[in-house]
Amino acid sequence: MPYYGKYYMKHQGRAERLAAELKLEDPQVLEPGFAGHITDRENTLIRDAMHMSPRIRVWWGFPRHNAELCGQQAYSAVKRVAMYGDPENVLHNAKLVRQSFAPKVMAKAS
Question: Distance between CA 110 and CA 82 in Å, rounded?
Fold first, then answer.
């Protein structure tokens, strides 16, 4: 049996239900760092799963509210966490998300 990470095993039922609802072939796509390079469709489906579940959103390093799940920064943040994320370390995932949103913050400061 492959290793899915403690968080995934703890919330395996929820992730599998969301994957079935979103018609994902592989529920492991919802695990940060598992998918590597993801397609645009997978990126959209992951963001849809985050809209449906605050737990998945926090696991991926996003805040609990939906405000930052739309737009180009959210798209690039999901790609970054899918590639370099860690299912065991939510703080690492949050750092990756913040790095994706940093250019937007820097542009406002100038």
Answer: 30
